[in-house]
């Protein structure tokens, strides 16, 4: 006899969404979470008196987004900030040439036109690519066809490399030629003035969640599963596994019997990228009042290349920059002091002595986090977008997988993770939960708590 109908492993957005839908349908649901908090890779630090999102920050495209509809129904405030898709232009940006000198409007416009020109060629090269081709291969072919001067080619080449790092957390030569096929944004992008983790916390309220319960083994038999932790074994009719792909790839959770090839092979083929954040709070603003982004091209931006103005969230002069891919891996091995010093050297190459010493900083190290082992998934060479969906299972009718790595249409996003939790609940219940009713039930539950 099982103790629960469903055990959900992981209390990130996929896990709590799935658990909430199942619980609302009358199931007995238990959530086992390795961390001491809810949210997973949605993690907001409020220790400074304002929210700092150390993990996910954006909804990438609100048009037609089920996630944004949930956020809007719950009354969670957002702020438009449409640059998370690593645009070359389109919003107020300060561009700097390879020698660190500021680019005027004409030079910035030419740079943006260069990227758009080569991107059109790149789409053709991707369509003509062969199995085994990398994103580096197809970008080089597009650059060869561009007709641009060598120095302009170098700047666009650097841009493509950084785009892959920011979107996938990977080196451009490790990404499949089709690795950014899903990278389309419909509508504006938004961030969260109160912190993104408000969303999973509100969904999770009232669920049976056991924190600090890392699962080390999941065994299955006909009609039953058992999840082993250092605090006991928990049994149910089925389980939904939402741990990050990096944890699955590392073998930190053992499966008995072993997972079938249709699930284990996608785990092996897909890649897990590293994408780290560095927040720097300054005593005063030294960049333009209207600028969303400061972006260094070429040599000046070899490592630290993009700086996002998040002062509207903090209420203080603050920039956010990223270290991703191989650079992110090297960076997370350094001390905070070394990371900040390196970032300041890059900023001072652009702004000189106007850059004061930061009064505070935050540095993330997602690749070193034992409960994520990376930031988000990507289509590595030899993988395909079909691998994302194949990873979802189910296995033997009792084991399901969810999380951003299992949603092929929108991997590496909170939106994809949310929809994957919905899919797992749908497969278990045999019907599709009503997402509008799901949101209304959260509001009704909160109103009941406030009125009691």
Distance between the termini: 36 Å
Number of helical segments? 14
What's the CATH architecture of the largest domain? 3-Layer(bba) Sandwich
Fraction in beta strands: 15-25%
Shape: globular
Short note summarizing the structure:
It contains 14 helices and 20 strands. With 452 residues, the protein is of the alpha/beta class.
Topology of this structure?
Elements: E1 4-9, H1 13-24, E2 29-32, E3 44-45, E4 52-53, H2 66-73, E5 79-80, E6 93-96, H3 105-127, H4 135-146, H5 150-168, E7 190-191, H6 198-204, E8 209-210, E9 215-221, E10 224-229, E11 232-241, H7 245-250, E12 254-256, H8 261-269, E13 271-273, E14 275-281, E15 293-296, E16 306-309, H9 311-314, E17 318-324, H10 325-331, H11 336-351, E18 360-363, E19 376-378, H12 385-390, E20 399-401, H13 414-429, H14 435-451
Parallel strand pairs: 1-2, 1-11, 2-8, 6-15, 9-12, 11-20
Antiparallel strand pairs: 3-4, 5-7, 9-10, 10-11, 13-19, 14-17, 14-18, 15-16, 16-17
Helix pairs in contact: 1-6, 1-13, 2-14, 3-4, 3-5, 4-5
How would you portray this structure in words?
Helices cover 36% and strands 19% of the residues. The chain is built from 14 helices and 20 strands. The strands form 5 sheets. Strands 1, 2, 8, 9, 10, 11, 12 and 20 form an 8-stranded mixed sheet that branches. α1 links the parallel β1 and β2. α1 packs parallel to α6, α1 packs parallel to α13 and α3 packs across α4. The two termini are 36 Å apart.
